Amino acid sequence: MSIQLERTYEPLTELNVIEVIRELNYFLLEQENELVVNEIGDGNLNLVFHIEHPATKRALIVKQALPYAKVVGESWPLTLDRARIESEALLTEAESVPHLVPKVFKTDRTLAVTVMEDLSDHTILRKALIEGSTYPKLAEDIGTFSASTAFYSSDFHLHPFEKKEQVAKFTNPELCKITEDLVFTDPFFDHDTNDFPEELIDSVEKLWNDEELLRNAAQLKYSFLTRAEVLLHGDLHTGSIFITENSTKVIDPEFAFYGPAGFDLGHFFANLALNHLSQNAHAKEPFNRESLQNYLLETISNTWDTFENTFSDLWHEKAAGPFSKTNGVLKDFLQQTFQDSIGFAGCEIIRRTIGLAHVADLDSIENKEVQLYYKKKALELGSKLIKKRSSFTTITQLTDTIRGA
Ligand SMILES: Nc1ncnc2c1ncn2[C@@H]1O[C@H](COP(=O)(O)OP(=O)(O)O)[C@@H](O)[C@H]1O
Ligand SMILES: CSC[C@H]1O[C@H](OP(=O)(O)O)[C@H](O)[C@@H]1O
Fold first, then answer.
1. Closest Cα to residue 239, out of 249, 228, 226, 224?
2. Which residues bind ATP (predicted)?
3. Domain range 18-117, its CATH number among 3.30.360.10, 3.10.25.10, 3.30.200.20, 3.50.30.10
């Protein structure tokens, strides 16, 4: 079967996807009929094809956006432009942290396709954490990823014209709307996208009736809507991180856009906090549980420290502009970013507990009563982080709060 490349969009299949990569000459023509193709996408939105030549083990990934959200179906149309955003974000991130993202080999806008490095020797971090694995380089890598991509995309580094060009390039209204709805709005109201067991209704109604919480959630949503500070990944949860002992790769930046610098850090902290809570049920031996939970809290703490140090070093070396030497300017930016990250973490924790898109960390707790218990704890933690974020001045306060949840 052959398809008309570069003319019209059509969803690829395991039978015709090879057409897209032929021109790369990655596989020899004579190897083509030996290639093994599998659609392996397990995310909410896209097709992901793994193409391998078994004899040589050479492999490629072809990721294609569908014109709708895969998890819901054609009733939820979704822009194909997210494939362009994903490719552009990976290429931009690679300018400052090439070792932390998959290599992009080809982008095809018509087919909404990104061809990239195969990372099948890595594991998705969420799965690995649930199983109790730990990774010594995770904190340093994510702190470096967040600080470098933030600094180099910001007004502290770019000329104002270039910064605004970048903001325009990464304008991503449909994907941002998903976050505006699913993270910042629906979980705080009785909305039909929400998804939680009925036994949780008392805890959920407590959130819906908490005026202080709603007011603070509104502030965070407004920051997300208006503060085009840095290029964000936009969905930096533990399912968007591929990992081995020696390597970390951040994948899936289709939600990338210019937003508040604490947003990605907040999502990462939230997903580690959710895993921390869930280890009370997953980890069988008390000693094992304690060391895993300590690892998760150290990872949060070391990620923040790496972010702060890396961003500060870049600032001192490279920040331009009349206020770059003014006392307190960097400190104010870092404090705002830190407190924002705590509030954003709270929103992510709440939406992953009662919103449309859950996390396996909590949902895979087999005993339903125990699962319910930790979901209630998650809601309390999320609510506290949102309401009290301005009172946090050290990362230890955050890790102590998660430990006490
Ligand atoms: N570069 C890659 N190498 C190997 N597997 C990948 C790669 N990118 C994605 N995958 C696989 O496809 C799955 C879905 O990818 P993801 O980018 O998260 O899709 P979605 O945008 O639909 O969430 C990942 O969980 C992973 O198993
Ligand atoms: C209908 S999109 C729901 C949810 O899915 C995205 O995550 P992923 O593509 O990594 O599975 C994103 O978090 C959205 O909020």
1. 249
2. 46, 63, 117-119, 252-254
3. 3.30.200.20
